[in-house]
Amino acid sequence: MTSEPSIAAEPHVLGSAVAKVMDLRYAESGAHRYGIPREHFRQIVTAVVAKYAADSAESEQIELVSKLKIEELILARACSAGNEKAWEAFLLRFRASLHEAAYRIAGNDATGREIADELYAELYGIPNRDGRRVSKLDYYMGRGSLEGWLRTVLSQHYIDRCRSYAKSVSLEEQVEAGASFPATAEASTDEPDSRLAIALRESLDELSSEERFVLASYYLDQQTLAQLARQLRVHESTMSRRLDRITAHLRKRTVKRLRAAGLSARLCDELMQELDVRDLNLDVAQKLRQESALPAFYNKDGSAS
Amino acid sequence: MKHFPANALRKQLGQAQSAGPHPDADQLTAFTEEALPDRERADVLAHLAACASCRAVLHAATVAEPEVAVIPQPRPARIPRRIWIPGIAVAASLLVIAASSILVDRATRTNPVGPSTTASAPAVLASQPLSSTPAPPAVAPPEPRAKAPAPKRARTPIAPRTPAPPPPATETVTVSNAPMPLTTTQGDTSAISLGSVATRGAPSIKSQEQAQAEVMQRRSALAAKVTPEAAAQVQDQRIQDQRIQGQRIQDQRAFAGEFEQSVHGAFMARPALRPRFRINGQGQIERATEAGAWQPVAVGPVVHFRVVSVAGTGIWAGGDQLRLFHSLDNGVTWLEVPLPASADRAHAIIHIRIESPQKLTVEADDGMTWISIDGGVTWQ
Predict the structure, then answer these.
(1) Is the pLDDT of residue B119 over 50?
(2) Which residues of A touch B48 (CB under 8 A)?
(3) Of A192, A288, A263, whose CA–CA distance to B12 is shortest?
(4) What is the pTM of this model?
(5) Which one of A105, A121, A282, B17 is most buried, counting C-beta atoms within 10 A?
(6) Residue B247 and residue B370: Cα distance in Å, rounded?
(7) What are the residues whose beta carbons fall under 8 Å from the beta carbon of B291, sequence distance 6 or more?
(8) Which residues in chain A have their CB less than 8 angstroms from residue B351's CB?
(9) Do the Cβ atoms of B74 and B264 come closer than 8 Å?
């Protein structure tokens, strides 16, 4: 969170076609409203290209520049530079939605207001060691909408906050709060048959990234079909069918592998049936807490953003 | 997913190794907004499949997405059921009649004469084009497809059916695969029982004599009831029905065309799907579609708006002087909702939170908060 964004930190030479697209986008960016000259605009966009498509072909760079939310990117940069007019426009457009998003994420008014205020402080800028004010808005690169980016950053804040809170709360406080502790804090340690584990792992490796994401979101993160459908921008029934198809395919491939390993059909069925969905005992929240307290996002150079 | 080893699956999914660096907030946002190129999207998906932290952020960000008022998509006009059901019935009946005619025609082609017991004058049933233009009531005798010349058509009383040869003044009609004669005065009138007769068994299964006798019995029973006047009346009635049906189909098609045009026009007049709302720099409410064009929304009074909140098709907007407006139809019409009179009108509404269609909270810039639990009728 403390590393500073590198706007035009390193000179990056772009092709003439990309520069032409940049010039075209300058007019629609509204940069003149905030007094951003063309040269500074180029630096801003060049930094984005350098971050995401430095080694890409020129056509991909052009596509990247063309798809940037250029108006919101310039607004964010103008805000981080302390432009009052930009801040006025920012607050007018995003204040309400930011509070609304914080409330939805936190689930209650008080926590929502807290994380929204914290983010406001970071958006305005926190002085770094050199005394220079660094705004969180400098990290916005215009790939998605500014409103969506604010929601994502809020989500990250909230999750970091939950993790730090879980660490800082003492056992007594948890007991006072009514927390009960199961006899086995760990998830089910029943080790499935190693042959099943191997077959399952190999079958999983065959799945596409999206299919594994769907499975992980559904089985590990306990996301509902509706939530999954919203994330992948498909209808809920489509997601239901897709999940059924994935699991059926996974089961089929796993059984095939088990059979190839020399297991009888009956034993395969027993292995596939011995662990029912209702027997699951996996504490996802605990799994999340066990992970490191490092921020979720990193820059390519390894520094936290 | 019954009997799937989900626990083992979770273990395997949980042991997955993260692929590559974490995507930043920009990439995650672009991922949810489907703004990433395919290659980059695949990379992000591969990472998300293995990284619980990034998935948690993504899930939380999705929860925070506001509900978007969705206007129905323009769909192809649909003909009301009460219109198209009779149309289908008419079409089906015409199809059955046409199929029967074809079957009869084919039967007579394959068995032009056959070993009919009525060796005197075998003829072919006049198969008129039932599905197209109606034939005139007085139908000329069809071209005999049999080798023997057909006798002249005459309206004479139908003789009682017996296996014996009919009187020479009558016309013998072959109506099925089995070469069986039917004596009638009007070829078409015998089509009343064509369906059942034409589909009966082939001569190879049942002897021709037996089949002929059976059909003749049935035909004689039918013909005994049919007088020439009745047959002519049936023919006229059927032609009239066909005309009415043809006119009805034309009317239905015309109505369906008008309906489609009117429905399509009505939808085209509406704004496009998935409108989003914002407030521009001048404090006006604007609405945009996925196409990206922002259009101002006419609320009515000139108000400098500060906040707009959307929940389903309900939209709330607030601004200076504590003016609060509500729209129930995606911003087409607006109604001003008065806040309590004691409120200080010098301030502005800066925050509207919709917890349900009935419960909402309005906050002013001086910290004053009003809560309504009845959809804005009363405030506390």
Answers:
(1) no
(2) 209, 213, 216
(3) A192
(4) 0.50
(5) A105
(6) 64
(7) B272
(8) 95-96, 99
(9) yes
